[in-house]
Design a protein that fits this description.
The complex is a heterodimer of chains A (447) and B (342). Chain A is mainly alpha-helical. Chain A is built from 18 helices and 6 strands. In chain A, strand 2 and strand 3 form a beta hairpin. In chain A, helix 16 crosses helix 17. Chain A starts with a helix and ends with a helix. Chain B is mainly alpha-helical and 342 residues long. The chains are: A mainly alpha (447), B mainly alpha (342).
Chain lengths: 447, 342
């Protein structure tokens, strides 16, 4: 008996290692990069906070197509284009502030639904090759997008002279600033600035919420889950301990006298860095939007539609036999993903503040896919946890690699190339591992 | 009419029509047709060999070689090595294509092994493998210990992003037996090289090995039953494809006059894939004739449309936009014809 459990443990550790090899490599890269780059803590934390709040929405837009068996939707680029078109419309008509940005989201929705519908049709005609089709459809749509914004606007549709139109009156400029619009406040930070909270206050609130939630689950858990109860009990107690540590740590840092104690051998720069850390603010409203989308992803899986997604993801054939309209459901999944990507791009750009008209959207699919894969997702399964962990690891490596490259080889450019290599490589390796496992599984079935 | 279109293939039909329309417009608008033809002939020779690289990989069943960029960076490595050794002219060219061979064999075998490990998802995986190798080579171009004054940045580290081949292999093929018919310049050597390469690949497809590879690519079960080693065929085909990519970029560079390093090769696979598809190939079937027809039609439309479109629509980069739409539209069309994974 003991032997069996021992061997079981051993295999489980091995399987955990092989299953999460990409994630583990990234944990290693992150730690090594942070140590090598010697970037100030303040810079790291504030950069991470910005990037998490502005990119998570886009990454979470990938989950529904993965569940529905379409795979990694590289076609979210098309959604990002819809978002940018909506932003351009908003700027043209001079919509500003929170209302303007919400209106832009509203305008983006029908455009994204239309684009998503077309992409979905295409995916239904390229079953089995959706990922490469999604990549190419991004390039294809980019051609049409450029035609629209460089030639149709001003060339065919007359437009009034606004700053974003090129001096000759035809086409849009390469970069469009979102921060000013006819001298008023523009769309920049329109979501971020709604409500901001100090980072450590935010941590304390999060900790408190986790504790309340855990307590609630501990005392009011369902009666019919008695078998699992012992396990869940431990998990929730573990959560509570983590939350308490988070609260304790945050309180220590917030209090400048005790915070200084954390930086032993205090010199002036450490104290300064501490003060800067204390001044980091978190855009609560943007994070709330991310939270909403996470909840949406969970809730939809409990509906009939979500169950349809899941059964199509498992087997299109069985789903069809059991009366699900497979093609229609797949199109719905792609439309949802595209609309979410459009909103995600708007959230992303309102934080960046300038739109690279012909470039901002091109990397969206690549970065989002790389992030979710790094977080541990595969072509067949992904959840919100994968997305968030992936964003943290991906962007940590993103931030540190130029500086790490400079420290290691005396050249920041090297770090940037390395980073690009890793991004592409991660996608290639994850897909290859998945295909390899699939094939091995099939061969074993054959035997 | 419908059967006629079906017979020659929709992309081929569309592009032929487009080419005719553009050429007629060019004459009407008054663009010197000699210049257009000169450009066309040269670009067919320039791009031809890279497009040819698609034939072995499609025939072996791995689909269009989206990772031909691997061959391309190997070719660039061979060409830069030739320049580093101070070779010039034909010797430099020959050295480069000779050196590319062992490199392509080693890397092509590794790449082929990867593709054999993950059958069924080759196209996406090869695309991203190609992308990541290009980025890896970006690091190599910085750290590589080459000292040639032509290639190095005067200050700073590594090789230049673009450097001229004026003093080394510029037009060594193009100027071989070069002549002029009226306004049209004919780069004889370049065309001869392209057609020789086509002939070699054609001869290979007719050989025993080539037939076995095609059999494996067309019908797995039948091939297994008749004792064909499919995996080995796929390895050989991808080595050849990689080597053709390497030779292709050397031919391209000598005609173009510059070598472009770093991220320049990143997107080079897509026009080549589009060209062979335009010529009548599908993701699972390709012939050498498809390459020749495809490269003439695709490059023909691109070269002749540029002056015409710029004449008609003076603003924006219409030619570049239409290239993106045509190229990727054709690839998408071909993907819809691939048998589903179900």
């Amino acid at each position: 008996m003991a032997d069996i459990t021992k061997s079981k443990n051993k295999t489980s550790i091995k399987s955990i290692l092989t299953k999460n090899v990409v994630t583990l490599i990234f944990v290693f890269l992150t730690v090594a990069g942070i140590m090598l780059s010697e970037l100030p803590v303040f810079y790291l934390v504030s950069e991470m906070m910005t990037r998490i709040s502005r990119n998570t929405f886009l990454v979470l837009s990938l989950i529904i197509p993965i569940t529905a068996g379409i795979g990694l939707n590289f076609g979210i680029i098309v959604g990002a284009m819809a978002g940018q078109i909506a932003l351009i419309i908003a700027l043209y008509f001079g919509w500003t502030g929170l209302g303007g940005l919400l209106l832009a989201c509203l305008v983006a929705t029908p455009i994204a639904i239309f684009f998503g519908y077309l992409t979905g049709l295409l995916f239904n005609n390229t079953k089995g090759q959706e990922m490469i089709a999604g990549l190419i459809v991004g390039f294809f749509a980019n051609g049409i997008y450029q035609f629209l914004l460089l030639i149709v606007i001003g060339g065919i549709i007359p437009v009034k002279k606004v700053p974003m139109i090129k001096p000759d009156g035809v086409g849009l400029r390469n970069t469009i600033a979102l921060d000013t619009n006819f001298g008023e406040v523009g769309l920049k930070y329109a979501f971020d600035n709604v409500f901001k909270v100090n980072l450590f206050h935010f941590f304390i609130i999060i900790g408190a919420v986790i504790i309340i939630y855990s307590l609630f689950r501990l005392f009011y858990s369902g009666e019919n889950q008695k078998i699992q109860r012992e396990k869940t009990k431990k998990t929730y107690i573990f959560y509570m301990i983590l939350a308490l540590i988070l609260i304790g740590f945050s309180t220590l840092i917030m209090n400048s006298s005790t915070g200084g104690f954390l930086f032993t051998g205090t010199n002036s720069s450490a104290i300064q860095s501490l003060e800067m850390l204390q001044s980091i603010e978190v855009p609560i409203f943007t994070l709330f939007l991310v939270f909403l989308i996470a909840v949406f992803n969970i809730v939809i899986m409990k509906t009939k539609l979500g169950q349809d997604f899941k059964s199509i993801g498992l087997s299109q054939h069985i789903a069809r036999v059991s009366g699900i309209n497979v093609d229609r459901t797949r199109i719905i999944a792609v439309i949802m993903s595209t609309v979410l990507a459009a909103w995600g791009q708007i959230i992303f750009l309102q934080n960046v503040g300038t739109m690279n008209t012909y470039g901002s959207h091109m990397q969206v699919g690549l970065f989002a896919v790389a992030a979710i894969l790094i977080g541990g997702a595969t072509v067949k399964s992904a959840n919100i946890g994968h997305g968030i962990l992936g964003i943290i690891l991906f962007h940590a490596v993103f931030i540190v690699s130029p500086t790490a490259g400079k420290q290691l080889f005396g050249d920041a450019q090297l770090g940037e190339y390395f980073r690009a290599f890793v991004v592409y490589g991660v996608i290639g390796v994850s897909l290859a591992l998945h295909a390899w496992k699939n094939r091995k599984g099939l061969e074993e079935l054959g035997k | 009419m419908a059967t006629f279109i079906k017979d020659i293939g929709f992309p081929r039909f569309l592009m032929s029509l487009l080419l005719i329309v553009i050429l007629v417009t060019a004459i009407v608008v008054g663009i010197p047709i000699g210049m257009v033809l000169t450009d066309l002939v040269q670009r067919v020779g320039m791009y031809g060999v890279i497009v040819l690289a698609m034939v072995p990989s499609i025939q072996s069943g791995t689909g269009p070689n989206f990772a031909v960029t691997i061959g391309i960076v190997l070719g660039l490595l061979a060409a830069t090595t030739a320049i580093e050794f101070n070779l010039v002219g034909m010797w430099a060219f020959l050295f480069a294509i000779a050196m590319a061979l062992p490199l392509s064999i080693i890397v092509g075998l590794l790449y082929g092994k990867l593709l054999n490990a993950c059958k069924g998802a080759e196209m996406t995986i090869s695309t991203y493998t190609g992308f990541s190798i290009v980025q890896l080579m970006c690091i190599a171009w910085i750290v590589i210990p080459f000292n040639s004054q032509i290639m190095r940045w005067p200050i700073g580290k590594g090789l230049k992003t673009t450097f001229t081949l004026e003093s080394t292999i510029y037009k060594v093929l193009d100027n071989f037996l070069y002549f002029k018919i009226g306004e049209v310049e004919i780069p004889t050597g370049l065309l001869l090289f392209f057609f020789a390469a086509c002939l070699l690949v054609y001869a290979f497809t007719q050989s025993k090995m080539g037939t076995a590879i095609q059999l494996g690519g067309m019908n797995n079960k039948f091939a297994v039953a008749s004792g064909v080693d499919i995996d080995r065929g796929r390895l050989v085909a991808n080595v050849i494809s990689t080597y053709l990519g390497a030779v292709g970029i050397i031919v391209y560079s000598q005609s173009f006059g510059f070598i472009q390093l770093y991220t320049a090769p990143l997107m080079m696979a897509f026009p080549a894939v589009a060209a062979v598809l335009i010529g009548g190939a599908t993701a699972s079937r390709a012939k050498v004739s498809h390459v020749i027809i495809g490269v003439i039609l695709f490059q023909g439309v691109l070269t002749s449309s540029m002056p015409v479109l710029n004449e008609i629509i003076p603003f924006g980069s219409v030619a570049e936009i239409s290239r993106m739409v045509i190229q990727n539209g054709i690839i998408l069309y071909a993907l819809t014809k691939v048998d589903g994974g179900q």
